[in-house]
Amino acid sequence: MNGNSEPVQSRQRLCHPALGRTVARHLASQNLRPPAPHTLQAFEAIRSKVEGQRSPLVFDSFCGTGLSTGLLAQRHPDCLVIGIDKSAHRLDRHQPSGVSNYLLVRADCDDFWRLAADAGWRLQHHYLLYPNPWPKPGQLKRRVHGSPAFVDLLKLGGALELRSNWQVYVEEFGCALIQAGYFPRVDRLVPDVSLSLFEQKYRQSGHLLWRCRCEPGEAKCPAATVQA
Fold first, then answer.
1. Are 192 and 218 a contacting pair, CB within 8 Å?
2. Model confidence over 37-92: pLDDT tens digits?
3. Domains in the chain, ordered, with CATH?
4. Which residues make Cβ contacts (< 8 Å) with residue 89, sequence separation at least 6?
5. Cα(105)–Cα(91) distance, integer angstroms
6. pLDDT (tens digit, 9 = 90+) per residue, 157-212?
């Protein structure tokens, strides 16, 4: 076995018992927390470019060094792919991929999603590759599906794909989507090519990889599930 990454360690073995009521509360409320100034500035810096072109939009949230963003831009050549990560250090390590249909943005994903949703942006695809799993039971509200940002994620639409090396995280995300009226699929992932440095590290370390996918049309009543 190659790699030196330890598997996710957590006392939580199943979906969190508070997941259902946490998701329900967020689906029934509106997030009023002001966006971070640097995220607002980053959003406004690219807004005219995004809204001035007609290409479908793809988000690569938690993009790290942007390796995945470049690869996704190659996979979706007719789209504009936007990679979002909060770490300037990681983004500074980006190596250009040879294509021009992508942008990298330093921003907090939660705030950026809300700004994009409020601006009326709608996605063709949305990738969430190996977000911080926040594995302690008391950290549920820091996970994507346990935070108020989950509602903004749904408003953006698009085909969702979340990947993680922690099965519980992926299953929770799927359960949250079901609660919001969607029909996700959770399965084991054996990728031919690593989409990110994290995925590469986890594969080399022998971790099992998991993903949750949901197509945009696979919802019972999406408009009703995302409105406060």
1. no
2. 999 999 999 999 999 998 999 999 999 999 999 999 999 999 999 999 999 999 99
3. 19-226 (3.40.50.150)
4. none
5. 8
6. 999 999 999 999 999 999 999 999 999 999 999 988 899 999 999 999 999 999 99
Can you give the pTM of this predicted structure? 0.92
For 136-157, write each residue's pLDDT tens digit: 999 999 999 999 999 999 999 9
CB atoms within 10 A of CB 228: 9
Name the residue with tokens 């919001």: 180
Query: Shortest CA distance to 81 belongs to which of 63, 64, 103?
Result: 103
**CA dist., res. 161 & res. 40, Å (int):** 25
**Contacts of residue 26, Cβ cutoff 8 Å, sequence gap at least 6:** 147, 148, 150, 151
Burial state string for 129-168 with b = 16 or more CB within 10 A and e = fewer than 16 = bbbebbeeeeebeebbbbbbbbbbbbbbbbbbbbbbbbeb
* pLDDT at 219 (0 to 100): 52
Per the rule left: phi > 0, alpha: psi between -120 and 50, beta: everything else, 18 is alpha
Per DSSP bridges, beta strands 123-129 and 57-61 are parallel
CA distance 96 to 61: 18
Q: Are 167 and 189 in contact (CB under 8 A)?
A: no
Q: How far is CA 21 from CA 117, 163, 165, 167, in A?
A: 24, 24, 25, 21
Question: Residue range 12-27: average pLDDT?
Answer: 94
Q: How many CB atoms lie within 10 A of CB 40?
A: 15
